[in-house]
Fold each of these.
Amino acid sequence: MVEAPIGVFDSGVGGLSVLEEIHRLLPNESLLYVADCGHVPYGEKSPEFIRERCRVMAQFFQQQGAKAFVLACNTATVAGVADLRRDYPDWPIVGMEPAVKPAAAATRNGVVGVLATTGTLKSAKFAALLDRFATDVQVVTQPCPGLVELIEAGDLHSPAVRQLLQGYLDPLLAAGCDTIILGCTHYPFLKPLLRQMLGDDISLIDTGAAVARQLQRLLAERQLLAAGPARPAQFWTSASPEHMRNILPLLWNKSGIVRSFGL
Ligand code: DGL
């Protein structure tokens, strides 16, 4: 059980930004990753559809004997984590949400921007997060349709991605945000481009490292931390394994086996 793998899932390759943080903090853990690329983007899909996909992933990781389940996707978390915790009360499940609390603590001028998917920003869970942690700051939210598709294609720098991103950053810059939350796990892959576009004065905050720490806490509480050595990471995709093999080196520079996910 201690040496059992950890299951990590996202609508696509975005969750690899979280996988990286998990691997950095917990190098002895064996990792399984499912990219639901056949259904990406989740951002514009209904909560019912996403909940069903979360159920499919949970069943798959249970069959693989995973000792913990990480929803490396903000959009899937707001739609599905409550049902999963109800259905699997004894299984350590880690979800993620935009880093409103740390951003509210970090902002110097009290203006915070949030880049996330439409599904995340429209959710009751996000509204509750703002009510709880953002009462003393101004929060400017910006959905980013189209961005995930470009990142899925492995495009992190082209003029097309820069132009789309500029349109999403403009309202945040006009409002004077000094802190921007990357509220979708795909967006940390755009950090080098964002730095070029924004300079160094605007803080960028994402939650990958915090998710890894939460996973570590849950495993430690249950005495489930692996002694290692870890087995190579295994990847599944519900779209083309060939495409995933091609872009994996860009997003995960370690070895790993990629298979087709047919569920
Ligand atoms: N990576 C996902 C998130 O964190 C969702 C992207 C999408 O499929 O729209 O929200």
Amino acid sequence: MAILPIIEAPDVRLKTVSTPVDTFDDQLKILVHDMLETMYDANGIGLAAIQVGIPLRVLVIDLQPEDEDAEPEPCDHDGHHHTHQPTKREPQVFINPEILDPADELGTYQEGCLSVPDIYADVDRPKTCRVRWQDLEGNSHEEAMEGLMAVCIQHEMDHLNGILFIDHLSRLKRSMALKKLEKARKAA
Ligand code: GNR
Ligand code: NI
């Protein structure tokens, strides 16, 4: 029940290789809950625990976050007049995720990152992959991923290994991105 501060580049904590979760307790549930609240507040589609300073292999993803600017839809079931946001939340939690069978074929997507605010750049990644992960109870799952989900989970997996999307760019483009970030921060 807390919106946590998001760490931004070039903070060295973002280079941490996160540690596997081995205790599936209430503290983990609280972390995941806070991460979802933080992700929705920032209008992101994914968040890795290290982005809020916790070096554990925990990700949350929701590819259809509520659009804060959308017109709320009126609703008056059970006699109460109120409004709700038109998009449905579909939070997904991945503990100790592993990428399996990345496709040889690459796809390009213009990526952004809550830890590199207002910077966007094309990144090439395998178009599809399988992901094995554990849920909050420690049960294992495996699923094929494609499209934006494949992009997002690979972006988030990178965070668990201390890698940012700008690390996939040329040195020139990366240094331009970091300079732009520094300039925006000074202006703010
Ligand atoms: O909100 C996010 N959008 C996004 C867009 C394209 C590719 C990846 C992402 S993930 C990002 C949230 C984030 O920084 N997760 O680590
Ligand atoms: Ni990110």
